[in-house]
Design goal:
The protein starts with 6 loop residues before the first helix and ends with a helix. It contains 7 helices and 18 strands. With about 400 residues, the protein is α+β, with helices and mostly antiparallel strands. The mean pLDDT is about 95. The protein is globular, with a radius of gyration of 22 Å. The strands form 4 sheets. It has a 5-stranded antiparallel β-sheet, with helices on one face. Strands 10-11-17-13-14 form a 5-stranded antiparallel β-sheet, covered by helices on one side. Strands 7-6-3-9 form a 4-stranded mixed β-sheet, with no helix packed on it. It has 2 domains: about 210 residues, no CATH class; about 160 residues, Jelly Rolls (Sandwich), CATH 2.60.120.1600.
């Protein structure tokens, strides 16, 4: 035991991580405010790293919070609750619980790895393209479900079974809700059946703790690199079918991502338009900053989904991206960020539409919108945001 690192040793390994990230993010120099923004992001990824990299254990798995409004990286979709657990591809697991009323709940198998810009460069092995849906299962009248996850179906077992890929090292669960206030989030547990489990060894814990610097640095640099990729391949003030994320496996197998960079002044706005597919299990749009952290969706209307949005009578969704409130229902608040990511997704749609993005002055927004556009008064906006805050907090994030 004498060879194990002390607390001071472990914390010392984290020194300089934030400063290096600030330098990579703002090579020409960062303001004090920007440095604090990065410190906040790095601290949040440290928190998710403890839960999903240090605490997690394939012998005693638990779905732990990965991305959310407190751990905001990778452009989290505000409609999703993201949870992750580690698994052993040779193990046998039971996933069980209660379905709830979420739009959908899916479990994606993935490689166990720490994120890195190398992922974008394509130097890592290809993803595990397996995503399972709770709605594939037999759901009891009380909403209860149970499924076995293993490499081979257990002998004599006739219940629900999902095959476990031999490369899988972790599971990512996404719970999608569009009506945040009224939908009931699924409750999900996981147990390993072939191994009673044992406490994590101090050596293993120390090793995982020692990887937190890499977890923070790699995760945030990955997202900054992805933003650079979209700048180079998609361009500014556009919303185009993704040129990278579609090859990423998981939900990308079932849905189309659209991405681009928004870059406008505080007195400018972007009008985003697309015809809504006639058949689509789910669609959504969001704005994020230039590190791909979604603009604070609890306190800002930085995203809209197919329940929250208003679609015009001609079947077209029109939204306004801006810092100033344009007084329209479909406002996407980019907050103080001068530029960042604009992203939309269409899930299990019968058509993937062409999009149109137009830059205009905020003062001229209404002249570019149909007369039957849904507008809001200041009091209605206050109520819209209050309901949003309530709904965000009612989700089962933790």
């Amino acid at each position: 035991m004498a060879g194990l690192p002390s607390w001071t040793d472990q914390v010392r390994a984290l020194e300089g991580v934030g400063e290096r990230l600030v330098e990579a993010w703002r090579p020409d120099g960062a303001s004090e405010v920007e440095a604090q923004d990065m410190t906040k992001l790095a601290l949040s990824i440290l928190a998710s790293g403890y839960m999903c990299h240090v605490y997690t254990d394939a012998h005693r798995p638990v779905f732990m919070p990965l991305w959310n409004y407190a751990c905001n990286q990778g452009g989290p979709n505000p409609d999703y609750v993201y949870l992750q657990t580690e698994v052993d591809p040779e193990g046998t697991y039971q996933i069980s619980g209660f379905r709830g009323t979420n739009r959908f709940v899916e479990v994606t198998q993935g490689l166990r790895k720490i994120m890195s810009p190398r992922t974008i460069e394509g130097t890592q092995e290809p993803p595990v393209n397996i995503t399972n849906d709770l709605d594939e299962l037999h759901i009891g009248d009380d909403g209860r479900f149970s499924v076995i996850l293993s490499g081979q179906r257990p002998a004599g077992y006739e219940g629900d079974w999902w095959p476990l890929d031999p490369r899988c090292g972790q599971l990512l669960m996404r719970k999608c809700a569009c009506d945040w206030v009224h939908e009931v989030d699924a409750r999900v547990a996981i147990n390993r059946l072939d191994d009673a489990g044992s406490d994590m060894t101090p050596e293993d814990f120390a090793h995982r703790f020692g990887e937190l610097a890499e977890w923070i640095d790699g995760t945030i640099r990955f997202d900054m690199q992805l933003v650079r990729y979209y700048r180079e391949h998609h361009g500014f003030n556009v919303l185009l079918r993704s040129k990278w994320i579609q090859s990423g496996g998981g939900l990308a197998v079932k849905q189309a991502y659209y991405d681009g960079i928004h870059r406008i002044d505080d007195d400018e706005a972007l009008i985003v338009e697309f015809p809504v597919p006639t058949e689509c299990r789910y669609w959504q749009i969001l704005v994020a900053d230039d590190r791909f952290a979604t603009v604070d969706w609890v306190n800002h209307q930085s995203s809209l989904n197919d329940v929250q949005a208003r679609v015009d009578p001609d079947g077209v969704f029109r939204a306004v991206v801006s810092r100033q409130d344009p007084g329209v229902w479909n406002w996407l608040d980019k907050a103080h960020w001068p530029w960042g990511i604009l992203q939309a997704r269409f899930y299990q749609a019968n058509d993937y539409p062409e999009t149109k993005v137009t830059k205009v002055a905020v003062a001229d927004v209404r002249s570019h919108l149909p007369a039957n556009t849904t507008f809001v008064t200041p009091d209605e906006r206050v109520e819209q945001l209050r309901s949003r805050r309530e709904g965000a907090q009612l989700r089962r994030i933790w």
